[in-house]
Amino acid sequence: MTPPHDWALVKRTRFSSPPMNQIAISSSNDERQQALIRTVQRMSSLEAPIVSLSGSHGLAEILSCRFDPTGQNITACSADRSVSLWQRYAPNTNYGLLANLHKAPILDLQWSLFSPLLYTVSADHTLNVTDLTTGTELVVTGADDGTVRVWEGGDEGPKTPISMFELSCPVTSVCCSADGMNIYGGALDNKIHVLDLCKNEQVYSLTGHTDMPTSLSLSPNRSFLLSPSFSSQTIIHNVRPFSPSPAHIHRVLMSAPAGLENILLRGVWSKDDNGRHVAVGGVDRTVCMWDVESGKVLYK
Fold first, then answer.
1. Last residue of a domain, one of 180, 207, 234
2. Residue 251 pLDDT > 60, yes or no?
3. What are the backbone angles phi and psi of residue 31, rounded to the nearest 5°?
4. How would residue 134 be classed by pLDDT, with cut points 50, 70 and 90?
5. Count of other CB atoms within 10 angstroms of residue 257
6. What sign has the CA pseudo-torsion 286, 287, 292, 297?
7. In the beta sheet, which residues pair with residue 202?
8. Distances 236 to 61, 68, 116, 186, 295 between C-alpha atoms, Å
9. pLDDT at residue 10, rounded to an integer
10. Residues 6+ apart with CB under 8 A from 144
11. Rounded distance between C-alpha atoms, residue 217 and residue 232, angstroms
12. What is the number of other CB atoms lying within 10 angstroms of the CB of residue 236?
């Protein structure tokens, strides 16, 4: 019997399987005798299916533990009257130990949903509120008189600046480094001045702009500085301690026009993907978005 002539060969797409973990059990070291008992699809970013956080409380019992609202940190309280703080993901650093918060074992703890506060209750019939922020809150301002001023934040801060830097021209934008030790100040001389808070002096300048930078923004991974300018040129500077480029320039982006109105256009980094994209507004009433690694325009 002759088959119909309307048959056709159809190619099926081959889908890649998601990452899986295989668990096998055997009393022999021979892989051929190992029996597969379960296959598990990994849906977590943890380094391993089971992660052990140990070493902070010795032999004392762990009475409670909580994730913070971001899910990135874990706190644990113990019968030794201390609270330990851990990073959720690798390397799972134990970055803090709050000792002797109470006079008796700490029974439970909870994070505040709106501020970096930790609440603990103890068998000594007390409730303790601990502020987990460290250091001093600082506010940095730049002005047309060519000064960059550093102020102490908070309600109890003084009304006078705690530090001041004088540049030779008006300052259009300021930004702090990730460690809070340096201040980046964009100025009318087309440079970004790097100011050291410890030395109270300028240490170097970031060059490359042919016109005044209009804003500064540090990347989420704290390695790059975004700076649009009046030349319609947006430069991404590498501000890591050891830059492969002597000029500290990582990317030069175009397509966001600045115009002749001298408007201080702002640039931002994407937050949910660790800064893979940047966006800058233009005087043409559009927002231009680039891919950082390729430098290509994604949307406009």
1. 207
2. yes
3. -65, -25
4. confident
5. 14
6. negative
7. 195
8. 50, 33, 32, 13, 10
9. 54
10. 170, 171
11. 17
12. 25
Give yes or no: residues 148 and 203 share one domain. Answer: yes
Residue % of the chain over a pLDDT of 70:
83
- pLDDT score of 40 more than 70: no
3-state helix, strand, coil split of the chain in percent (to 5) is 0, 40, 60
d(CA 62, CA 106): 9
Residues in the chain: 300
At residue 141, does pLDDT exceed 80? yes
Task: Name the domain boundary from 114, 131, 148.
Answer: 131
Which amino acid is it at 203? V
Cβ neighbours for 261, distance < 8 A, ≥ 6 positions apart? 283
Between 144 and 14, the more confident residue is 144
On whether the CB atoms of residues 256 and 281 are closer than 8 A, the answer is yes
Q: What is the pLDDT of residues 143-158, one digit of tens each?
A: 999 999 999 877 666 7
Residue type at position 23: I
Q: What is the pLDDT of residue 38?
A: 56
Q: Indicate whether this model's pTM tops 0.70.
A: no
Instruction: Compute the mean pLDDT over every residue in the chain, rounded to the nearest whole number.
Output: 84
Residue 151 lies in a domain: yes
* Domain with 157 in it: 136-207
- CA–CA separation, 40 and 66 (whole Å): 26
CA–CA separation, 29 vs 8, rounded Å?
A: 50
DSSP state of 162: S
Nearest to 68 by CA among 86, 91, 48: 86
If one counts the domains in the chain, the total is 3
What's the rounded Cα separation, in Å, for the pair 278 and 219? Answer: 9
Of 14, 20, 17, 60, the closest CA to residue 40 belongs to 20
In sequence order, which residues have a C-beta less than 8 Å from that of residue 115 and are 6 or more positions away?
A: none
Residue 300, pLDDT above cutoff 70 = yes
Residue 123: inside a domain: yes
The CATH number of the domain holding residue 169 is 2.40.10.480
